[in-house]
Amino acid sequence: MQLTLPWLSPRDPARRALVIAGRAYEVAIVRHRRARRYLLRVGPNDTLRLTVPRGAAIADGLRFVGEQAAWIERERARQHRRGGAWRDGSTVLLRGVEERLRVHGTEVVCGAECIPIPSSTVDLRPILEAHFRVVAARELPPRCLTLAAEHGLHVARVTVRNQRSRWGSCSPRRMIALNWRLIQMPPLVCEYVLLHELMHLRQANHSRKFWREVESVCPDWRDSERWLRKHGRELL
């Protein structure tokens, strides 16, 4: 493995240039006092983000990055697929089913969904993703509120967002934000995510008590977690 570590800028020690397997990457280095280990994220245009725990050595972190060459290449390929165009015949995940897109004149069919498109459309992705966001905003908040009522929980507000690193969140003000991509998951996995966030109203952490709360309302939650680990990154 070829590895170089020059400064990108003498005034910016938080950025380095790193060459891995012949490819040059710009590495943004961020210290985080709560991080327990080195964390690496692949960004666009051959950029990397390295999170360094408090008190840990940056040099060790850069060596850690160099050891992740195979993973970095896989992640770059995944992101390329994730950002690729959708066309007639492409397969798209919707409600856990791989649906093949079919274009008929000025509409595209995706499962049971028929979405109008301009006749000159080349990439269907922006139109379909916008449509999925509308469907998610229509379906997810009512379902979340129904589940909350079933378990005696009060939610101040439920919103649907375009989150890029999480499936949902629950704030101290009892507001829940959900990722619109939940609509692409199998219904049972989607419901698990909703219940997961609702249980944070009882335990605002990921302690053993929290997971006992999850277990009590979703006994098969481990199956959903396995699905998310296997398929989730193809959606984010």
Order of strands across the main sheet = 1-2-4-3
Which homologous superfamily in CATH is the superfamily of one domain? Metalloproteases ("zincins"), catalytic domain
Largest sheet: 4 strands, mixed
Model regions low in confidence, pLDDT < 50 over at least 5 residues: 1-12
- CATH fold descriptor of one domain: Zincin-like
Fraction of residues in H or I helices: 25-40%
Span between N and C termini? 29 Å
What is the level 1 CATH name of one domain?
Answer: Alpha Beta
Number of helices: 6
Average pLDDT rating = 90
- Assign the structural class, choosing from mainly alpha, mainly beta, alpha/beta, alpha+beta, or little secondary structure: alpha+beta
The tally of beta strands, per DSSP, is: 12
- Classify the beta-strand content into a percent band: 25-35%
